[in-house]
Amino acid sequence: MTKSGGRDGTERLVVIGGDAAGMSAASQARRLRKPGELEIVAFERGHFTSYSACGIPYWVGGEVSGPDELIARTPEEHRERGIDLRLRTEVTGIDVAGQRVRARAVDTGAESWTPYDRLVIATGARPVRPDLPGVDAPGVHGVQTLDDGQALLDTLARTDGRRAVVVGAGYIGVEMAEALIHRGYEVTVVNRGSEPMATLDPDMGRLVRRAMEGLGITMVSDAEVTELPTGDDGRVRAVRTKDAEYPADLVILGIGVRPETSLARSAGLPVGAHGGLLTDLAMRVRGHRNIWAGGDCVEVLNLVSGQEQYVPLGTHANKHGQVIGTNAGGGYATFPGVVGTAVSKVCDLEIARTGLREKDADRVGLRYEAVTIESTSRAGYYPGASPMTVKMLAERGTGRLLGVQIVGREGAGKRVDIAAVALTARLTVEQMTALDLGYAPPFSPVWDPVLVAARKATAKVRQGQPG
Amino acid sequence: MTKSGGRDGTERLVVIGGDAAGMSAASQARRLRKPGELEIVAFERGHFTSYSACGIPYWVGGEVSGPDELIARTPEEHRERGIDLRLRTEVTGIDVAGQRVRARAVDTGAESWTPYDRLVIATGARPVRPDLPGVDAPGVHGVQTLDDGQALLDTLARTDGRRAVVVGAGYIGVEMAEALIHRGYEVTVVNRGSEPMATLDPDMGRLVRRAMEGLGITMVSDAEVTELPTGDDGRVRAVRTKDAEYPADLVILGIGVRPETSLARSAGLPVGAHGGLLTDLAMRVRGHRNIWAGGDCVEVLNLVSGQEQYVPLGTHANKHGQVIGTNAGGGYATFPGVVGTAVSKVCDLEIARTGLREKDADRVGLRYEAVTIESTSRAGYYPGASPMTVKMLAERGTGRLLGVQIVGREGAGKRVDIAAVALTARLTVEQMTALDLGYAPPFSPVWDPVLVAARKATAKVRQGQPG
């Protein structure tokens, strides 16, 4: 029973979006179903497929030599595997009742309808472009796509600017600030919040701010940008806030992204409070048996808060694609949700978080105890041992782990994985004190910093208990 | 109701053994009970307390400057905290019925009885000294205690030997081989097994052997030592096996340790199949309400195999001490068991394991699927990405994770913690494929190597299933 009109009763899978989620889904479906069984058509409006947007700051910073290195799989490789990939082709409409999509060739403007039996929506995210005077002026750059990265590098090569202002102090803003310091810029980061990395509690974000200031980055907090004034040549020349103006030869917008769901909304598909598509555990769009969605255009269930959340991360997009491709290929897989893990690096500072921050717990009605400890990455006597701060939240009463934040140097960031697994398994902090973690002097003190935090959290939870 | 005859009804806690488990227990009990409530007496036959035996290879190798750095807490510090610590005093008998111990001053030979209300046995381990001709000759060294380390360093300083033979290729043997290479020795490691690091499956141990050979270490496999021939001066001059003789100016015994339980056995306390004391979850010696035991003299429950195991590791000893001290101090804590995690480092090679090896699973009747994958520590395009091999065992049918082994470079070792927590939580490899692990290019490929292994293991488990 095919509606796609495929030859010989072959069904057709249509994928909208040629990046991580979409092409992982296409590839996995292809692994399970031969071209004679399932035709796979993928539409991508840009020039590239399957690239690592997370790598763009390192490309700009010079640690990665070129955009090719960021491409996991080229269009040719996808085509060789039997995926009918149509680049520079934008899907402009989804006809859910008619099971077809309308696509437009970007270069010619020609439009046509393509029927589908199964549909994957992987339209990704679009960067937040604040509605500010000057936001479209030359010299103002986003850093979401490879094209963005190339445009920024072109600007860097062409101009002899000395002063850069980064708007936003999330992980992209922080990474870009470092990349520009490496390129010899004077860098100012203008941040709406009180501390950078709002994915951390402010007491932990403060450690990041100090490290950035130590690099020579000027950090401006609690600042709302009102305008990006331009010069006589039309180029951006400053970033203006309510209180001050910061001269800029270059402005980077690191304000984050929103789910790109205009197409899906127009088709009447369900979106959540954060603007992302809502799916079930098999990554099917809710209420639709033959439409899947994944990657930066969907909301995901946070297993700790019990609520949907928007977490645009390549690692989730790849997992979604794998699950979608398995299901669309006739197999069975689920994506149970996330616990909110993220790591990033600023110079030699490693920053990690998982689970809930204090304000997340407050918002969903969870009462908690919070503790913070200082420890080291290795046995204190072993060369290279470096300080590490671990903050841990545990539910009041039950002692269930709610979240962990870590700021330190080498060896700090990936320790968050211990907490990520513990959150998934709903361990209590007291159960965590007995975890059999790897110990040897080059790897850890005899009590791993995560265990030290768990011990302190356990004591605090027990203190609050009657008897 | 005190039997110790303490002043004013004060109870007395006696601790036998002044290293990690014993002194952690004493310190924790002291935190919970003031000197007026609980008298704490600790006997230690050596000169030192609370030191890191795991650090000795680094001291010999020169990465750590002196023994003081390996001492976590000095005798004076313990005494200041109100612990009556008696160094150079060996306990020679336990009278369980009479609730007292007999102690002998090592220097004077004077003996006396000390009554107790609560007793902690933390007698540690003794190195395996094979019953071989020449084993006690000058030039043959163990590396279990600070005294051993000092004796070895004295030998290294005094003699101008060039050839060292290490007997045994467990983690101590491997670490010592590297330390001696750093000191300019020609090093031969004579190993009874087919590959070094018998804590790994041989296919993973092979990777370690190749790395050691790459350092210039000569690896002799499947070799049984029969004699340590001595020269005219009485010093060791070679290591002889059934098939060959290896000239040696210095011999290191890295054959491992056994639980030191002769005292406990004499007192009629229960020991298990591996020679260690048997305890309950509160670390009480089975059948005894007021005697606890922990550290290198006890067996621990392996939560994966369901059987007792002997795992002499400082990290367990510290946890035992913490649990014992809490209980002996009137609180409540348990030690649920281990999953068998261990990490070590040879030059820049990181070696880790947790859970069961193939032969462990075979022995306890678990059927399994095993997979091995190659991946990298960071995104492939990010500088410093290095190869990593991950082997994973999953139970046939259920897919429950049974074990993980990792051999790689920087960033490989502590990834085993992910598996250690997953084993504790009894996750399946399919559940692991959805783990929300930290991802950013400097930390991991978009699929963490542990996830890649979990995916492959999931596929293999599913393959074996009907339907």
UniProtKB/TrEMBL annotation, chains A, B:
The FAD/NAD(P)-binding domain, residue ranges: 12-304
Boundaries of every Pyridine nucleotide-disulphide oxidoreductase dimerisation domain copy: 344-446
Signal sequence segment: none
Family annotation (InterPro entries): FAD-bd_OxRdtase, FAD/NAD-bd_sf, FAD/NAD-binding_dom, FAD/NAD-linked_Rdtase_dimer_sf, Pyr_nucl-diS_OxRdtase_dimer
Family the entry assigns: Belongs to the class-III pyridine nucleotide-disulfide oxidoreductase family.
Named cofactor requirement(s): FAD
Keywords, comma-separated and alphabetical: FAD, Flavoprotein, Oxidoreductase, Redox-active center
Pfam family, one: Pyr_redox_2
Protein name: FAD-dependent oxidoreductase
